[in-house]
Amino acid sequence: MKLLYIDLFCGAGGTSTGVENARYEGRQCAKVIGCVNHDANAIASHAANHPDAMHFTEDIRTLELSPLIAHIAKMRKLYPDAFVVLWASLECTNFSKAKGGQPRDADSRTLAEHLFRYIEAINPDYIQIENVEEFMSWGDLDENGKPISKDAGRLYQQWVANVCGYGYRFVHRILNSADYGAYTSRRRFFGIFAKGSLPIVFPEPTHSKEGAAGLFGRLHRWKPVREVLDFSDEGESIFGRKKPLVDATLERIYAGLIKFVAGGKEAFMVKWNSMSRAGKYHAPGIDEPCPTVATQSRLGVAQVSFLSKYYGGSPEGKSVSVEEPDDSPAMVKIKQFMALYGIIDIKMRMLRIPELKRIMGFPSDYVLVGTQADQKKFIGNAVEVNMARVLCEALCARLIEEDIKPIRAAA
């Protein structure tokens, strides 16, 4: 065992699962020994899948550290050649651009500062940070809780300097999990602090959007999310629902019809509350990685039924004339499109938990505790499993191949 991880903000276990899956020449090379999270169901989920780790159901700001310190000391003796890694997937909601113009929570934005007492108590060999890209824009807030643009990045740079003051070197990367074989194109900030002269290593990409010949060999094409979607579950017709779909959702469905159905496809994804910075909606396809999985239930899959496919049935029985009242402009456009392309029905459903688990790299038998909403939140909050694995494997490989050992082992 080369790396021993303490997983702060562990959630239901995305990082921990990736770490435990890390291999060097076919053998496990890393182990999660302790984890902290304030959510009882998240910790229960984590414990159900990683029973050997020491679990703390506590806010990292208030956790009494002596039991964790004693446990780490015990593990260091048990694995004398292993390096200790403090992993912190810092709370990112109040940095993310998905927050839009809403006020930020100043207290949650300073969670990174509470890392210092863990550094002092544990003295880890490595600190690994995961967050949204906007973490680097961390600065002061005005009296209304809005970021001050001219101050963007000041507190982030100060925080990095303060951590380095404990004797660490720092490098960061913005990595897209789809470039490493994931089913989601999730871009995240990854930072590594290394003690003294210890190596800092990031994995080399194995995939690219179109596939290409790279410096380290052939890059595979991004994995299409269709590989993990259940198309036998067609969902419910968008017509005649007890609770009609809102116009914004219908506009997204229409965008998907234009982009994919008119191009010969039969299915596409619908992503709620998603606009580009130019204010336009881009319908995601199923032949590309899934967009970022959020904590809310925002991703659905839509499928169309063609007259030519089913060789029968009457469109009058499935859809209503565009001349009838109470249809919104968005619905009128959809029905006109259906008439033009011979479509008899459009069905849509939200992505199911088994699909979301696979998109985020969790095994199909991974246990999640709580309501459906809880489980979707845990999946959306998780670090993509495969991304955690490749980061861990890259570092393990360098330490093993160069036969680097902790200084304490040689003392």
The average pLDDT is 86
Kindly report the spatial arrangement of strands forming the biggest sheet: 5-4-1-6-7-9-8
**Strand fraction:** 15-25%
Morphology:
elongated
What is the oligomeric state here? single chain
Percentage of residues in helical conformation: 25-40%
Q: Which class do the helix and strand fractions yield?
A: alpha/beta
* Number of E-type strands: 16
The major β-sheet equals: 7 strands, mixed
**Rg over CA atoms:** 24 Å
Low-confidence stretches: 92-96, 307-323
Tally of contiguous helical segments = 13
The sequence of SSEs as H and E is EHEEEHEHEHEHEEEEEEHEEHHHEHHHH
Give the N-to-C terminal Cα separation.
20 Å
What features would you describe in this structure?
The protein has 411 residues and is of the alpha/beta class. Helix content is 30%, strand content 21%. The strands form four sheets. A seven-stranded mixed β-sheet has the order 5-4-1-6-7-9-8, sandwiched between helices. It has a four-stranded antiparallel β-sheet with strand order 13-16-15-14. A hairpin with a 2-residue loop joins strand 11 and strand 12.
